[in-house]
Amino acid sequence: MLITKADRTDLQEILELQYLAYQSEAILLDNFSIPPLKQTLKEVEQEFENGMLLKAIDDNDEIIGSVRAYANNGTLYIGKLVVNPNFQRQGIGTKLLIEIEKAYPQERYELFTSDKSIKNIRLYERLGYVKYKEQEVAPGLKFIYLQK
Fold first, then answer.
1. Measured between alpha carbons, how far is residue 25 from residues 46, 82, 86, 104, 107 in Å?
2. Residues 6 or more apart in contact with residue 100 via CB below 8 angstroms
3. Which has the closest alpha carbon to 122: 86, 87, 97?
4. Residue 132: CB atoms within 10 Å
5. Would you give the distance in Å from CA 10 to the centre of its chain?
């Protein structure tokens, strides 16, 4: 596995991976209208222009994971850490998160996830993130914000 910067030609494949990876979150939340499942290629292209996307590729040059981030006022805002379900629990998400932090040495790092995403929260806490805020964004949907 290799982690490298994504380029514009990778964005459609990353978006398709995002749709696949967020199915489990949608099932967990019983909501298939969550923003990652409705995001458009144009929106991903805008995120690409405003920050950085990393990709993890396997030995066949297939994208099996991705993370994106942008920096603002000393904080790196990290989002959409995704790994192909067939490759989860192999440390790929951990490696992607570590690499995006290395690419953007900041004073502070921030990310969020659903309060029902216990596996995600455990991963983030294992990497030094601590919860600092909860926010109800819709009935039955609460985000947990973590920082490092």
1. 24, 11, 15, 27, 30
2. 52, 54, 67, 68, 69, 76, 78
3. 97
4. 10
5. 16
The edge-to-edge listing of strands for the beta sheet with 108-114 is 2-5, 52-57, 63-72, 75-83, 108-114, 141-147, 130-138
Q: Which two three-digit tokens encode residue 95?
A: 């490696």
Give the CATH fold of the 2-147 domain: Aminopeptidase (3.40.630)
**Residue ranges of domains in the chain:** 2-147
Report the C-alpha gap between 65 and 77 in whole angstroms.
Answer: 18
Place of tokens 């590729």: 57
Q: What is the pTM of this model?
A: 0.89
User: Per residue in 96-126, pLDDT tens?
Assistant: 999 999 998 888 999 999 888 888 899 999 9
| pLDDT interval class at 52 (50, 70, 90) | very high
The one-character DSSP state at 121 is H
